[in-house]
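Hi, can you check this record?
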Amino acid sequence: MNRSVYRWSSLILRKMAEEINKSEIRSSPSIIAKSRSLWPSVLRWIPTSTDHIIASEKRLLSLVKTPYVQELVNIGSGPPGSKVRWFRSSSNEPRFINTVTFDSKEGSPTLVMVHGYAASQGFFFKNFDYLANRFKVIAIDQLGWGGSSRPDFTCKSTEETEAWFIDSLEEWRKAKNLSNFILLGHSFGGYVAAKYALKHPEHVQHLILVGTAGLSSESDTTYEWVTRFRATWRGAILSHLWESNFTPQKIIRGLGPWGPDLVRKYTAARFTNRYSPEGVFTEEESRLLSDYVYHTSAAKASGELCLKYIFAFGAFNRALLNSASEWKVPTTFIYGAEDWMNYQGAQEAREQMKVPCEIIRVPQAGHFVFLENRDGFHSAVLYACRRFLSPNPDKEPFPEDLVSA
C-alpha cells in the first residue's frame, strides 16, 4: 500500500470509527431522538443533487474535444418476465441509465465502457478523445451510480444483486438497439461485463476486462497481507463495516458541506506522480474530477450497497474464475503492472477457457491503468481489438511498450 493511499485509508478509518459509535447509538430505538441531536443539523446538509451531478459531469467532459451526446436512457420499470426484480421500491416509475455517446467515423466498431465501484463514466475522460478516433464510444453510469437513477437498493442475495446490474444493462442495450459491440469493464465493472457476457454472449463481440474483480480469493498467497491487515485494529474496523454495508460514501454524506474537501484530499492522494514525473492530472483536471467525484458520491446511496453481497472483505470473489470454462466470448485482460488485482487469476482462468484469451500488462500503472499510463492502456485496447480495426490482424505486432502474460 503506497503512502498516499495509506494516508487516505487512515483518514477514512478515523471517520469510520466515529461512525461506528454513532451507528451503535442509533441502533437503540429508545435513544434515537437523543442520537439525532448528536449529529448537528449542518452536517446533514449535503450540497448536491442530480442536477449537480450532470452539471459536474458536463464541466469534466468540457476537457474532452470530441463532441458527444448525453442522454438519460429509459430502461423501464423492470425486466419483462424476470423472476428477480432488479429494483424494489415503493413506486413503479421508470429508471434511467445516464449515457454519453461520442462522435465517430461511420462504420467504426462500437465500444461500450462500464466503470468500476465508487466511480462513474466520467473517470474515462482522459481516454475518450483517443478511443473515439477508432471506435463509436458509448460510456454509461451503471444503475445506482453517477447520473443514472438511484432506486432503493433492497437486494438480499448475490443472485438478486447481480441481476440488478446485468438485467438493467440488458434493458439499456435493448433501449439503445445495440448488438455486436465490444464490452469493456473496469474492476467491478469488469465483473458486471463478464457476467453480462456469460448471460448474453450473442451481443458481445469481444470482452475487455481491465483490472477486473472476480478472479481472486483472500486465501491466495498473493493476498496474505489481507489476513495480516485484518488482524490489526484498522482491519477489524474495516471488516466490521464491510459486513455492515457501511460505505465510504456514507462518510462523505455525513460530512455535509465538508465532504468536498475530503474528496479533494482523496483525489490528490490517489492520483499522485508515482508513475509519471508530470503527474496524472493537471491542476484543472484534478479540480474538475474532485468536484465530479464528490457529487456522484454524495448522492443517494443505491448501487454502492451491492458490495457485501458480491465480494468478501477486500473485494475478493472467484465467481469469474469458477465459470471460466463456460465463457463464449473472446476475452482480453488488461492489468497495470502494479495493480493490486493480481493478473495470475486471469492466467488461471485462461487455462480453463475455450475461447481466445490474452493477458496484457501495462508498465508504470496500477489499478487505474487507463489514467496512470494512458498511452499503454490505449495500445493494449487497440491490440485487443485488432481484428475489428486492422485489415491484417494476424500480422499486427505486439506493442513493444506492453508485456504479454
Observations:
- The longest strand covers residues 68-76.
- The longest helix spans residues 3-26.
